[in-house]
From TrEMBL:
The keyword Oxidoreductase applies. Residues 1-19 have a biased composition (Low complexity). This is Acyl-CoA dehydrogenase. Its cofactor is FAD. SUPFAM superfamilies: Acyl-CoA dehydrogenase C-terminal domain-like (SSF47203), Acyl-CoA dehydrogenase NM domain-like (SSF56645). Belongs to the acyl-CoA dehydrogenase family. It comes from Streptomyces inhibens.
């Protein structure tokens, strides 16, 4: 069984996220030392490189490769990836405590080799044997980069029944894909894309929705454009114009796309929540240090009641969100139904990150809007979080429906 189932930039480099007294409630003693090492690596090695990594291009690739080599040398590489594929096999219940500090930087998972976790698990469970043998070791080593393409232009991202991309079967068992996908994280640098498409002639709705592994070098595959999100890059639009892949590049069986996607999304949402916790702690730490260090004629900002209110509300949001996230972690790690817990955690964590980042910007004043702190990026992530992996409204409605069904007394 796979181990996972179910203020100013310079001062920031000197202290861990959460140094303002947040701590890590419930962190197992056997994980605490490793968590400290991961936190230190992200703080001391990754965060100082963020401006270069954010800019993209050749300098970013060089910097990322250097960080990945350092992570390997430090024994921190591919911590949650199954051992059979070359990782260290740390299960979700333990890895969750590492994912927080790893995710304090958007680049932490890539630098530490955990970014391909969802793809490794998906292909490990559902890819054909030849594909597993060929692709998974390269994924774990970092030699191969993947992404996942589900959302399409002009169709609701939360309604897979609207999928228009199609796959046509060839006489030799191959598949030819046509369609466009967008808001795909990392597509501009990817070697492989997992594409959701409808098998031609399979009907409407969710009938025939299947997944295909597509090499980005295949004829007919085009990266159309980058889609900046609130001014930041990293999302892309692609086109598949008669891209042909072998029969063994179908992931899972015909019509299984939604079941496989559901597995992926449940774990992916929990991992995002954990990383948002880490980013919120980073913003909280920046806010508290700014409040204590910023002097006015009447004394430090920390003496102002309105600033104290922002600190209290942010701490309350963090402390009340963390148990929701870890409840989802516990149920998912145990192989239990975690749909309700995951939905609540996703909404709470997204709102919390936006709230804490906004409060930190307010305490920084104009400096919080500029390039000298991580706060603009953290706020941008918080705002985007309310749409990623399904908008808040989708999760609110889904959770409410599940709860209300338990109260239904209709005969």
């Amino acid at each position: 069984m796979h181990p996972i189932n179910a203020a100013e930039s310079a001062p920031e480099a000197g202290r861990a996220p959460g140094a303002a007294g947040l701590g890590q409630p419930g962190c197992p003693p056997e994980v605490a030392e490793l968590r400290g090492r991961v936190a230190a690596f992200v703080r001391e090695r990754v965060m100082p490189c963020e401006p270069v990594l954010d800019a993209g291009g050749a300098p970013a690739r060089t910097a990322l490769h250097r960080l990945q080599d350092e992570a390997r040398q430090a024994g921190l590489w591919a911590l949650p990836i199954p051992e059979e594929y070359g990782g260290q096999g740390i299960g979700l219940a333990r890895y969750a405590h590492l994912a927080e500090v790893e995710g304090a930087s958007d680049h932490g998972p890539a630098a530490l080799g955990s970014a391909p976790l969802l793809d490794v698990l998906m292909l490990g469970r559902h890819a054909r044997p030849a594909v597993r043998e060929q692709r998974l070791p390269a994924l774990t080593s970092g030699a191969l980069r993947t992404c996942y393409a589900m959302t399409e232009p002009d169709t609701p991202g939360t309604d897979p029944a609207s999928t228009t991309a199609r796959a046509v079967a060839g006489p030799d068992g191959s598949w030819t894909l046509h369609g466009r996908k967008w808001f795909i994280t990392g597509a501009g640098e990817a070697d492989l894309v997992t594409v959701m498409a409808r098998i031609d002639g399979a009907g409407t709705g969710t009938d025939g929705l299947s997944l295909f592994l597509v090499p980005t070098t295949a004829p007919g595959f085009t990266v159309l454009r980058e889609l900046p999100v609130l001014g930041a890059g990293g999302q892309w639009e692609i086109e598949l114009d008669g891209v042909t892949v072998p029969s063994d590049h179908m992931v899972g069986e015909r019509g299984e796309a939604l079941r496989i996607a559901g597995e992926r999304l449940r774990l992916g949402r929990v991992l995002r929540c954990l990383r948002w916790l880490g980013q919120a702690e980073r913003a909280f730490d920046l806010m508290c240090r700014r409040a204590n260090s910023r002097e006015q004629s009447s004394g430090p900002l920390a003496g102002r009641q309105l600033v104290q209110q922002l600190v209290f509300d942010s701490l309350l949001a963090l402390r009340t969100t963390r148990p929701l996230v870890y409840e989802a972690v516990t149920r998912l790690a145990a192989g239990e139904d975690a749909r309700l817990e995951t939905g609540m955690a996703k909404v709470a964590a997204a709102r919390m990150l936006q709230q804490v980042a906004d409060a930190a910007i307010q305490v920084h004043g104009a400096a919080g809007l500029g390039p000298d702190t991580a706060l603009p990026g953290l706020f941008r992530t918080g705002r985007a979080a309310r749409l990623l992996d399904g908008p808040d409204e989708l999760h609110v409605a889904a959770v409410a429906r599940r709860v209300l069904r338990d109260y239904d007394v209709t005969p």
